[in-house]
Amino acid sequence: MDKSKALKAHGGTNGYNWISDFVYGGIDGAVTTFAVVAGVEGASLSTGIILILGFANLFADGFSMAVGKYSSDKTELEEYDRIKQIEYKHLKEKPEHERDEVREIMERYGFKGKDLKRAVEVITSDDDAWVDLMMRNEFNMTQENINPIFGGFVTFLSFILIGFIPLMSYVFRDLIGGGNVFVLTCVLTSLALFVVGAVKSRFTVRNWVLCGLETAFIGGFAASIAYFIGAMLQGLI
After folding, report:
1. Smallest Cα–Cα separation from 214: which of 196, 227, 229?
2. Residue ranges per structural domain of the chain
3. How buried is residue 101: exposed, middle or buried, by Cβ count under 10 Å (0-12/13-18/19+)?
4. Is 204 helix (H, G, I), strand (E, B) or coil?
């Protein structure tokens, strides 16, 4: 297998769909940071507290999510490779049994008689095709285009970039001047969530406006919960 094929088979960046990682990392970053800001605002704490807790959450939670993405993708690849090696071993140790399984699979696809016999012969003449068929039909597993390192990096980057939006008004409040900074934060974060949610519709069959509104609503609802909890616990500080 040449280098380009190997990269693609093992989730190389060639053709890797990083947009989904960016979308979900961005949504999580915006929602969690927005909730932190809202909770601190509800408790009527200072801007300094908002920035400390906000940035602490931004980088710690972003790193945690990236590591989780990396570990999940790596485990998926390793599990696929483990099962695949077992199947190659079975081809050598019990070929007739594996051939019978191919025959059963092709029968489910509607092959009969000479067509069935020919289909089994063609598939079992190539070990790679044989194992791929078994992986898909016996274990319901396919070789996903996954890159754990790149996926984790994109997730972290998106979390930081989109998650910074709820903090942006506080960081630049001196440049903004008067006005309610929290209201501006709510507007900017809701707009960011709407845009990211609209992009998320690319991976569904749903309308992009509805996806955007739903994502913005979820972020706003989470922030509302945090705000009222902060307000209720204000007396404890």
Report:
1. 196
2. 17-79+150-236
3. middle
4. coil
CB 163 within 8 A of CB 66: no
- Helices of type H across 179-207: 181-200
| Structure tokens that stand for 135 in this block | 């992986």
For Cα atoms 167, 173, 178, give the angle at the middle one, nearest 5 degrees.
130
**Phi (first) and psi of residue 139, to 5 degrees:** -115, -5
Residues in CB range of 127: below 8 A, 6 or more apart: 88, 91
Q: How far apart are CA 91 and CA 133, in angstroms?
A: 12
**Percent of the chain with pLDDT strictly greater than 70:** 91
The rounded Cα 185 to chain-centroid distance in angstroms is: 25
Angle at 174 between CA 169 and CA 175, to 5 degrees: 80
Contact, 154 vs 22, CB < 8 A? Answer: yes
- On average, the pLDDT of the chain sits at 87
Amino acid code (one letter) for 37: V
Cβ atoms of residues 157 and 24 within 8 Å? no
Is residue 4 predicted with pLDDT exceeding 90? no
For 109-151, give the DSSP string. TT--HHHHHHHHHHHHTSHHHHHHHHHHHHS--------HHHH
Q: Over the stretch 21-42, which tens digit does the pLDDT of each residue have?
A: 999 999 999 999 999 999 999 9
What pLDDT band is residue 142 in, cutting at 50, 70 and 90? confident
